From TrEMBL:
Its cofactor is a divalent metal cation. Pfam families: Peptidase_M42. Zn(2+) 1 binds at H66, D178, D235. This is Hydrolase. InterPro entries: Peptidase_M42, Peptidase_M42_aminopept, Peptidase_M42_dom2.
């Protein structure tokens, strides 16, 4: 199980803002933590953090999750000092009004609120309708354009202010569990591999990738430079265990149900089988996520780097994705970490990934 003392590292990841393209703060936290479990740590020109354990080992395996999160980019400040923004990543606008946000400025974070006209004043037509992003603004309590401009340079970013909190049954809630819960799981995998390094044959490359939410750009270049035979991306995936979802459309994926293993065209069938074997041998219950087309994760771009990479996708079940209250299970996160450690320990120079 995840040690309670480790949860503070997940809290640090979450309290370090990292909208896509602005990941420096979270990557600093990742570098400081991962260096004790790896032999080399470097950061590339995009900001990907790449840390190697046993880099001369065979085969080369890349374990990657994305460190970036959704955010808002401030583009305009009006006469009254309200901030207007462009979304960084895919938001459902109906989840935004009333959210508290932190605007990240040169002198530190400033509290703000996403405003919308009160329901009383909306036309009967607009009531109950999702707002348009262009109709929303951030209110920092400024009294004028000049007042706001002194504090917030254009081009500043903001993130939702929600932080990690605990719920019942090992459940956690926060913004940005997508995908910081996966970064956390992979650092835990690296910690466990480092403890067993005499048994390790593979060269293991941990990647905290940038810019997934805006097109998987970080994972693409990281995969090129790492040049792995095998890559496993870890991300969160939606569940079908709450009202308003259809198991017929989404399959059966539950919170607390264990790691979710994808199968389909983007997944190497032998790597999939090795993951299933590792889970079964460890007695970890797992769930299946058949994906007929793209997975919409970093897996898709990594697969086609260079001459091709034997890719797989392992997901943490997560409710209410891309809201300020994403929910995940510490039990599932622990099992993803354990599954991947066992999977990597079983790899050696004879591992065959040719379908
Ligand atoms: Zn994600």
């Amino acid at each position: 199980m995840i040690d309670e003392s480790r949860v503070s590292f997940l809290e640090r990841l979450i309290s370090s803002p990292s909208p896509s393209g602005f990941e420096q703060q979270v990557q600093q936290v990742v570098r400081e933590e991962i260096k004790q479990y790896t032999d080399e740590v470097r950061t590339d020109v995009h900001g990907n953090v790449i840390a190697a354990l046993n880099p001369q080992g065979t085969p080369r395996v890349m374990l990657t999750a994305h460190g970036d999160e959704l955010g808002f980019l401030i583009r305009y400040i009006d006469e009254q000092g309200f901030l207007y923004f462009a979304p960084i990543g895919g938001f459902d606008p109906s989840t935004l009004p009333g959210n508290r946000v932190h605007v990240h400025t040169p002198s530190g974070p400033i509290l703000g609120v996403i405003g919308r006209s009160p329901v009383h004043t909306l036309s009967s037509e607009d009531r109950g309708k999702s707002p348009k992003l262009a109709d929303l603004w951030i209110d920092i309590g400024a009294t004028s354009q000049e007042d706001a401009r002194k504090l917030v340079p254009l081009g500043s970013v903001a993130t939702r202010a929600a932080l990690l909190e605990r719920m019942q049954n090992d459940t956690i809630v926060s913004r940005a569990l997508d995908d910081k819960s996966s970064i956390f799981a992979l650092v835990e995998t690296m910690r466990r591999l480092h403890e067993k390094r005499e048994a390790l044959k593979a060269g293991v490359f941990f990647v905290s990738a940038v810019q997934e939410e805006v097109g998987s750009r970080g994972a693409q270049t990281a995969a090129f430079s790492v040049d792995p035979l095998i890559a496993v991306a870890v991300d969160v995936t939606f569940t079908s265990d709450h009202p308003g979802t259809s198991k017929k459309e989404l399959g059966d994926v539950r919170l607390h149900g264990g790691p979710v293993l994808s199968i389909g065209g983007h997944i190497n069938p032998r790597v999939y089988q090795l993951l299933v074997k590792a889970a079964d041998e460890a007695g970890i219950a797992w769930q299946i996520d058949p994906q007929a087309a793209r997975t919409s994760t970093d897996t898709d771009v990594i697969q086609v780097v260079r001459g091709g990479v034997a890719t797989a996708l392992v997901s943490i079940p997560c409710r209410y994705l891309h809201t300020g209250s994403e929910i995940a299970s510490l039990k599932d996160i622990d099992e993803v970490a354990e599954l991947l450690a066992r999977f990597v320990l079983a790899l050696d120079k004879d591992t065959n990934v040719i379908p």
